[in-house]
Amino acid sequence: MKRKAVRSIIAIGLVAVLFLCGCGQSEKEKKEGTTEKKTEKTEKAVKAVKAVKAEDIKIGYIVKCLSNTFWQTYQEGAEAAAEELGVQVDIRDVKSEDDYVGQLDVARGMVNQDYDAIVAASITNTNLIPAIADANKKGIPWVVVSELQDEDVLKEYDAKVTCNCRLSFHDEGVIAGKYVAEQLGGEGEVAIIEGLTGTTATNERIAGFKEALEGTNIKIVASQPADWLREEAKDVTLGILQANPEIKAIYALNDTMALGCVAALNQAEKLQDVLVIGDDGTNEAYESIQNKEMAATIDGVAWQIAYFSVHAAVKAVVEEKETLEDYDLTPGLITIDNVSEAMEEAPKPVQEMFDINKNIYLPIEGIKE
């Protein structure tokens, strides 16, 4: 059921209630007033009409690129929530993680198709803001996952988001940095394989990683972008290894690039000499850790983010909320010590992370099965 339709039904219901309440009353009663009783009846009628059938709610869900297993985990989490709530979810992606224009086209198409709410993992922190402004004009709630939107550009477009459902990329970088510092004993040369330049994920993960290394004797000798791509990361890593043969660890800002680092280290016959830390917590990374190739990955609890973001979208629709409290999640660390559990629980996070994050759930008032 579209939001406009719900409001129309509410309006019709109110007219009918007011009409019925006026019938059969004496002029004296009208003069003396029965406003209090009318108000009580009207409020009950509104509450009854506003109870929305779950099956009539349709959520548009935009991810980056489903060829990346990380975003497949988002799909699984979103679909699990939709099934549990009894709502519809339509998941769309684009051909690559740098297709800014294509993703904006997808988003604007969803706005024009009158989805009840939209959840989006924008490629950058600005590329979908024009679509957010369009959604605002139509009263369509917009839930942000992944990239935190640029506040200045939101103001420029007079746009606002309903809520953010995400974790701190900065915290992910801190976890990676602390792990590296511990494993290297606070000494040695390390490198960073960056994601797409200028994105929140890239900037905040790097900042967190550097912060965690403060006060140690670990030196970052290289930090180069590979745009989230495996082959690009392989080539970048080979160049870094040639220029820095004493390197002891590489933090790749997503698992796809980390696996490219593994390929480069294999080619250079240095896999056992260099720690590779990824980020996202994908199945491929888990397998690599189990095979003693990658040393660790940061679990971005993608399944939970997607799951809770659908709950947030439905809550905004049913309760007609323009804004909601943000859903802030906590990342985790996966190493050889807990990778077996991670593989067993996938696509859900390990039990520890599930327990930490499950309490952010906010009940939805007014939804009917």
Please give a structural write-up.
Strands 3-2-4-5-6-12 form a six-stranded parallel sheet, with helices on both faces. The protein starts with a helix and ends with a strand. The N terminus is likely disordered. The longest helix has 20 residues. The protein has 369 residues and is α/β, with parallel strands linked by helices.
Provide the descriptors you would attach to this structure in a database record.
alpha/beta; 15 helices; six-stranded parallel sheet; six-stranded mixed sheet; disordered N terminus
Q: For the terminal residues, how far apart are their CA atoms? A: 13 Å
Structural class: alpha/beta
SS elements, strand count: 14
| Helicity, as a percent range | 40-55%
Strand arrangement in the largest pleated sheet = 3-2-4-5-6-12
Q: Strand-and-helix sequence, N→C?
A: HHHEEHEHEHEHEHEHEHEHEHEHEEHHE
Oligomer: single chain
Low-confidence stretches: 1-49
The Rg value, from CA coordinates, equals 25 Å
